[in-house]
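Researcher: I've got a protein sequence and the SMILES for guanosine-5'-triphosphate. Could you write out the 3D structure of the bound complex as structure tokens? I'd like something to compare against our soaking experiments later this week.
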Amino acid sequence: MARTVWYPGHMEKGRRRLAELASQVDVFLEVRDARAPFTTSSPLIGELAKLKPVCVVLSKRDLAEEEKTKLWIKELSKLYPTFALNLRRGVPRKLTGKLFEICKNRPKWRELRVAIVGIPNVGKSMLLNALIGKKASKVGGMPGITRGVSWYRSGNLLVVDSPGILDPKADRETHVMLTWLGCSKADVVGDHETLALQLLEFLRSSGSISRLLEKFSLSFSEDKDVAEYLAEIGRKIGALVSGGDVDLTRAGQYLLERFATGKLGSFTLEMP
Ligand SMILES: Nc1nc2c(ncn2[C@@H]2O[C@H](COP(=O)(O)OP(=O)(O)OP(=O)(O)O)[C@@H](O)[C@H]2O)c(=O)[nH]1
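Model: Sure. Here is the predicted complex with guanosine-5'-triphosphate in place.
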């Protein structure tokens, strides 16, 4: 789904619009990436939680390490009802059931109004589609309708989708991790080669680099520098420049794209 992103410079605007949304909905459904539920949390969720109940969906469960996902569910459930899902498989009835349960005091004469929030690329559109299903219709003429968002009605649900917001104050490390996950653009924090090297270094220090190297039929060795791995990956995929040297930009780009989309296996980047 094509969508505007409320980028850092528009944080104030984003904040105002979400506050406007809060007055129109019963519950916020926040989407985070199960591979990094802390780093991919919405920067405004603390503020929103003061206005309306929040329920969390950890998306991309299929791309995360299952044992760590269970720990995250346990931890986050202390704050908000939390579900970890592979959104490609849809959403379970118990998620909608939970939304109705936590909003049981809403006016009964109307539908349950849900706002989906989250940073870019975490799976908001997929969740929206899974929630409303094929029978949904786009709703126009909502009183006090918030600009830049679309409402969809399906049965007893009215769901609104909102643009992703990134935290302008987020540090470099956060942006780097968001890039690895495909939630931020590489050119915000560096070039593909550097970001790929940083990813390899991160995986080495967290002890999971071997699993990634195996995907390229490479083995881990203590005394090897990560730059050597990137070069080997470049050779394996045929990313070469004239003269036979490795095109490290292309190798980096390839690695980052495959990693973000889970094609190199399941990796969880942070613990609760
Ligand atoms: N494997 C897997 N991929 C998912 C899952 N959820 C979303 N994706 C993929 O992640 C990408 C982003 O999903 P979207 O639903 O477009 O994310 P979004 O938050 O709406 O993105 P923006 O519009 O940029 O804010 C798409 O390629 C989806 O197919 C999931 O649970 N598992």
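Model: The chain has a mean pLDDT of 88. The first strand starts at residue 27 and ends at 33.
Researcher: Great, I'll pass this along to the crystallography team.
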